[in-house]
Structure formats: structure tokens, C-alpha cells
Write a structure and sequence with these properties.
alpha+beta; two-stranded antiparallel sheet; four-stranded mixed β-sheet; 51% helix
Length: 325
């Protein structure tokens, strides 16, 4: 059973009556669901996921006032709920403590985005890591009659202000050009395979991020970035291309240090890597044109960055270095 299904079933079996019988005056004030850390909050969990911080559990989010009134008592009743449900037992690690149970709404959002109110500043939108916005808005809310938790969630799910989104797209495009279209081949010509691998990794990470930005979705934590591309309507083909790219070996035809051709970049598997990089960049350029962020057709992404930046209205954001963000 998926973690979200297990969580909802556990709440419906035990949580509803626990709240109703012991906190009747607060039943319509307690938001309940499963949101935050863990693959189960994305529906990405599998059998491997069950070895830690997985099992029957749910979150209960309270206003500061309600937390001060019933928080400790509610937590005590929650801890007394059955520890095993449908054959699953929650195994909680030190780092997993505090992910579920009774939480303040303000603490939950402040922990992820540094802001307890949901009124996010441009700087917070700009520099809070993307995966924290993703974790703050994933999962499911099972009940929220009061609406305080969901009000902030709804605000965040409206996505980045357009100027911030465009700035991030420009930064990702610049890094894709620098790492994949420029530095990867240069590193290979020098025989610097580690630098080439790092350049390729930078290219993959920034490619995934730009695809999320173009789909107006928050990028999750790195190990779920690629999997999270399932179901995208924009640039959906890039997911498979990146998988192929990650599986291709980086190698030189000649690997003897005394060989005069050692530092020469040769036509080998690396050709296929370059071909995939260029194919991906061409697809991104096409979508940038579709979204009216550039009118150039050049396949080199760096040549599009200033065109992208020119669409930013906020002077402070437009004045930032192209690779910042």
C-alpha cells in the first residue's frame, strides 16, 4: 500500500474518532493530512521505502492559539493510537522525528520556506531552494474545515511570481550552456574525465529544473527530480533522453598516458553524449520560443539568456547576474 493511502486509512480508522471523542470543540479546526518529507508524500514510495520513517501516521496542523490550548494533549492521544496498522509498523529515525503528528501551521511553513504567514517576499521566492517549496505543497490534505493550513498551501501552489520564474529559467539556460554545451567537450579534450562527469551532472540537474520551471511545477529533492517528470505535458520527451544520457559511459578511445592522442577528444560514445545534449537544448529552445521568452532559433542556450532576462519587469531581479537564482 502506498504511504498516502495508508495514512488516509489510518486517519479514517482511528484519527477521526480520536479527535471527535476527545476534542469535539476542535474537530472543525484541526487540519489533517500528509505533507512534507518523504517519498510517500509524493507517491514515489515502494518496498524499499518501508525501512525507515514509513508506516501508519498522519499530520495534524493547528493554529498557534489552538496548539497552545490542546497541542500537548492531542499529541499524547496521537501517540496512544495503535502502532501497527494493516501489517505496517512505523519505523522512525532520529531525523524523521517531527514529520508527522501534531504540528503548528506556522512552524510547518516557516521550516520549509522561512515564512510562517504564506506572504512570501520576492527574495524568499528567489532564493529558497526549489525542493522546499515542493515539500511544502506535496501530499494530500484530508480535512481542513478552518482553511488556515490550506490557505497558505493554495497561495504557494499558484507558483512563482512570473519575474522569478523567468529569472530562474535564464539561470538554468545559462548553466546548461556552460556545463553541457561548452565545458563537457572541453574537459574531454583535456582528458579531465572527472570534470567532464561533473559538467554532465550539472547539465542534467539544470535541465530537469528548467523543464519543471517551463511546466510551472516545483522541482523536488534531487533523488526524485527525474521520477517527478512523469506526466509532464511540456518537454515530456526529455525525461527519456536524460535517462539515456545518464547511462552512456564517458570514455576516451585511448587511455594510455604516453599515447600522443591521450588528450584528443575522439569520436566515440562521447559523440552520442554531445548529440543528446544538443537535442535536449534544441527542444528547450523551441519551448522558450513557444512561451515567448526568446525569438532566436540558435541552439546555443547562452545566446538566449539576455533575451529571456529582458522579459523581467522587476528592476532588482533583472539586474541580477544571469546565472544567479
Amino acid at each position: 500500500m502506498k504511504g498516502l493511502q495508508l495514512s488516509r486509512a489510518y486517519y479514517e480508522e482511528y484519527g477521526i474518532n480520536m479527535i471527535r471523542n476527545n476534542f469535539p470543540d476542535y474537530e472543525n479546526r484541526i487540519a489533517v493530512g500528509l505533507v512534507g518529507f518523504g517519498s510517500e508524500c509524493y507517491g514515489f514510495d515502494d518496498e524499499i521505502s518501508t525501512d525507515h520513517d514509513f508506516g501508519p501516521s498522519f499530520c495534524m496542523w493547528l493554529t498557534d492559539e489552538d496548539y497552545n490550548s490542546i497541542g500537548m494533549k492531542l499529541a499524547k492521544f496521537y501517540e496512544e493510537l495503535p502502532g501497527i496498522f494493516l501489517g505496517y509498523k512505523r519505523i522512525e529515525t532520529t531525523h524523521g522525528k517531527g514529520r508527522v503528528g501534531v504540528l503548528k501551521i506556522s512552524d510547518f511553513y516557516k521550516g520549509f520556506i522561512g515564512n510562517a504567514t504564506g506572504i512570501v517576499t520576492l527574495n524568499e521566492w528567489m532564493f529558497v531552494p526549489e525542493h522546499f517549496f515542493s515539500m511544502a505543497t506535496n501530499g494530500e490534505v484530508f480535512r481542513d474545515d478552518l482553511g488556515e493550513f490550506s490557505k497558505i498551501r493554495t497561495t504557494l501552489l499558484k507558483y512563482y511570481p512570473e519575474d522569478v520564474r523567468i529569472k530562474k529559467i535564464a539561470a538554468r539556460a545559462a548553466t546548461m550552456a556552460q556545463s553541457g554545451q561548452y565545458n563537457y567537450s572541453r574537459s574531454m579534450r583535456r582528458g579531465e574525465v572527472v570534470a567532464a562527469r561533473m559538467a554532465l551532472d550539472e547539465f542534467i540537474r539544470n535541465t530537469i529544473s528548467i523543464v519543471y520551471l517551463l511546466n510551472k511545477k516545483f522541482t523536488p529533492f534531487y533523488k526524485w527530480m527525474h521520477r517527478g517528470m512523469n506526466g509532464f505535458t511540456i518537454l515530456s520527451e526529455i525525461k527519456g533522453q536524460l535517462e539515456k544520457l545518464a547511462c552512456l559511459p564517458i570514455q576516451l578511445d585511448s587511455w594510455e598516458e604516453n599515447d600522443p592522442m591521450y588528450f584528443q577528444y575522439k569520436l566515440n560514445m562521447n559523440d552520442k553524449i554531445v548529440e543528446l545534449i544538443e537535442s535536449i537544448c534544441n527542444s528547450v529552445v523551441e519551448e522558450l520560443n513557444n512561451q515567448n521568452l526568446t525569438d532566436k532559433k540558435d541552439s546555443f542556450l547562452e545566446n538566449h539568456t539576455f533575451s529571456i532576462m529582458s522579459h523581467i519587469k522587476n528592476e532588482q531581479i533583472r539586474a541580477m547576474h544571469v546565472m544567479r537564482g
